[in-house]
Each structure stands twice: as structure tokens, then as C-alpha cells.
Design a protein that fits this description.
The chain is built from eight helices and seven strands. By secondary structure, the chain is α/β, with parallel strands linked by helices. Strands 1, 2, 3, 4, 5, 6 and 7 form a seven-stranded mixed sheet that branches. Helix 6 (123-132) links the parallel strand 2 and strand 3 (140-143). The radius of gyration is 18 Å and the shape is globular. Bound molecules: magnesium ion.
């Protein structure tokens, strides 16, 4: 994306979710816990239970702060930087992306579309995961609200134009296209010409991903289906 070239008026801003849309969040957590265990003993069963409980509510477990605090409590604060670096290193030797993720971003890039990642969760953990997944170069916003539609609506003026935050170039867009797995992300999402794609394999959906979505949001089973519609 060339932010400077797009800084004024553009047609569409493409916003892509990170967890469970682009990235395999379960695998990221699993590898993070494996790496952490090389530094300090974690009560794994307890961590898994907290993660499952928090996830069931549709919230994002703050594993990064949990581990950082755990290290501090054991007098091993100095290990935190090393642990993060190793997590990035180990993650990059694996593929943390879901099928179609690399293709989707390549397509947006190729067509010269303005795009960015909008991810919900604890900022520390989200940034660690984004780095591990190799998205350092992608414009991103980490929000602590799971209702992304509400956030996006706040960018809109009375004439319907979107005044983009500086992270997404700071220009003006006619519409926004949001690609996300969770129904809650589309709460208060702007009406047409803006559009949404909910990417969700319903046969394997988590309760937190389900729910009502506005009529301008199309359901897709996977990213290949989204790509076919762009
Ligand atoms: Mg998600």
C-alpha cells in the first residue's frame, strides 16, 4: 500500500480482521505457550482453561500480559524480550496464516487497493501476534472494542464519506469493505455502499463467532470465496 499516494480521496478502504480471518489463532497461542515453557514453567491446564472461558465469551485472552506478569513474579523479567524474539522466530518458520490469507493480501496489493488490518484484543498480545505472523509492514489498528462496525461508523460524516484514521492513510473513502469472522464485528456497520464479508465455516463455528449481521454483509465459508467476489 502506498499511503502517500492514496492520502486524499479514494473509493474503497478494505479492512481485514486478523484472528481467525487471516491467522490461525489457536496455533499462535499454542506456539507461544511452547516457547514460554522453555523459559518458565506455566500451569498449562490453567492457562488453557482461562483461554477457553474467555474465548467462549467472545473476548480475547490476554496471554502476553499473563506471561509477562508470571515472569516478573518469578524474578525473570529479563527473559521477556528474548521470549518474544524467539516466538517471532519460531512462528516465522511455520505458516501461521489461514488458507487464502496470503492470496487475499496479494490481490489487494496487486490491484493497488488501500487496505489495513483492524484487530480486536489486548494491544500487547495483538502486536506480538501480528509481528509473529509477518504483518509488520501492514497498516493496522488494534481496538479494545469487539464492535468494529461502531468504530468504523464514527469515521463517517453526514455526507456518508469516511475520514480515515492516520493508521489507514488519513484520507477520505467513499466506502469500507470489512472482512471478518465474527458477527459482533459487524454491529452498527455502515449501510451500502459499504459491504461486509463474514468468513466463517459454519460447520466448525465457535459460539462467539455467530449472530445476526446487517443485510449488506455476505456470508462466505472461506477466503477463497471472498476473493472470488472482490
Ligand atoms: Mg477474528
Amino acid at each position: 500500500m502506498n499511503t502517500a499516494e492514496h492520502a486524499s480521496q479514494i473509493d474503497t478502504l478494505y479492512i481485514v480482521d486478523f484472528d481467525r480471518t487471516l491467522a490461525d489463532s489457536d496455533k499462535l497461542l499454542e506456539v507461544f505457550m511452547e516457547v514460554t515453557n522453555q523459559y518458565i514453567h506455566l500451569p498449562l491446564e490453567q492457562v488453557k482453561k482461562i483461554n477457553a472461558d474467555v474465548g467462549a465469551k467472545g473476548d480475547s485472552f490476554d496471554i502476553a500480559n499473563y506471561v509477562r506478569d508470571h515472569l516478573a513474579a518469578h524474578g525473570a523479567t529479563g527473559e521477556w524480550e528474548k521470549l518474544q524474539k524467539q516466538f517471532t522466530h519460531d512462528s516465522r518458520s511455520l505458516n501461521m496464516l489461514l488458507p487464502g490469507a496470503a492470496e487475499l493480501l496479494a490481490l489487494l496489493e496487486e490491484r493497488g487497493y488501500l487496505y489495513g488490518i483492524l484487530t480486536y484484543g489486548n494491544p500487547l498480545w495483538q502486536h506480538i501476534k501480528l509481528t509473529a505472523a509477518g504483518f509488520n509492514h501492514v497498516p493496522r489498528i488494534v481496538t479494545t472494542s469487539k464492535h468494529k462496525g461502531r468504530l468504523i461508523s464514527r469515521w463517517q460524516d453526514e455526507g456518508g464519506l469516511f475520514h480515515l484514521p492516520h493508521e489507514f492513510g488519513g484520507g477520505v473513502a467513499r466506502r469500507v469493505i470489512l472482512i471478518d469472522d465474527k458477527a459482533a464485528s459487524f454491529d452498527s456497520f455502515p449501510s451500502e455502499p459499504s459491504l461486509g464479508f463474514q468468513v466463517l465455516d459454519r460447520s466448525r463455528a465457535l459460539p462467539a463467532q455467530l449472530g445476526e449481521v446487517p443485510s449488506n454483509v455476505t456470508h462466505c465459508t472461506n477466503l477463497a470465496d471472498v476473493i472470488a467476489l472482490l
